[in-house]
Each structure stands twice: as C-alpha cells, then as structure tokens.
What does this fold into?
Amino acid sequence: MGFGSRLITLLYYLSYPIILLLGWVLTTLAFVAAPLLHLLHYLLHGCSLPFRFLAKFETLYIFFGVACLTGVLTGTFLHYSSGFVITVLKLDKAPAQPGRTLASYRAEKPKKQAAKAKMTMPLIEATPRVEGALKEEYSDWLRQEKGQGKKGLLSTTILEEDDSSEAGF
It folds into this structure.
C-alpha cells in the first residue's frame, strides 16, 4: 500500500463524522420542509398546465408557422417581381386625368336638382268617378283615401266560388 492510499483512508475517517452529521441535518430539514415541498410541487404543476396543454398543438404550430412563412416569402417575391415587370414594360405611367373640382360640382348641382324636379311631378289626388253601374259598396271603397286602411293580404277579401261538380261527392 502506497502513501496515496493511506492518505485517502485517513481523510475518509476524518471526514466521516462531518458527513454523518450533515446527513442527519439534511434529513431533519427535509422532514420539516416536506409540507412546503409538496405545496411547491403542486404550485409548479398548476403553473405548467397551460404549457402542457399548448404542447399538444405543437404540430399545428409548426404547420401554420411554415404556412405563414411561405405566404410572406411568396408575397414578397410576387410584389418585387411584378414591380420589376411593370418597370421593364413601362406600365407605371398612367395618363393624368383631371379630377372633379369643387367649382364644377357646385355648378352641376343646381342643374341636377332642376332635372330631378322636372322628372317628379306632383301627383294630383282626384277621387275617381263612380258610375251608376257600380254597386254602392264598391263606390265607398273607391272614395277611400289611399293612405288609410289596412295594407297587405289580410285586408283583401277572397271570394270563393261554389263548384257544382263537388256536390255529387
């Protein structure tokens, strides 16, 4: 046995009481802190729930991320390539068209209003003539003003005819 092995053995026996004492202290601390450790474990478990839920969608994140990246790159490429083609073919020079000015709008407005007034003539409300051939009940209906009364299908009377062919059944 050499000098190195005797030195290691001596150091082992000298540090053994310190290691034993530290083991007892750490065991006692772990026993006292056990409720806190359990509480901390459950809190960390609860805080990690959203991340574990989102981890289930990892495949979708990758798919949509690649799709967005592909769309951005394709759009950028098309933007610059179409701009290059427009420049090469000299299509970017549009003829200048004068816009409508405020003065021309104000000049046209009275003309449009006059034309609109000519198109809409006031309606003359005249009561229809009731001929002698019409019954009295129909003449009341003809004299009635247009804005009054019921409107729609509920206000109309549906007259039914008698079928003589149904009399035999």
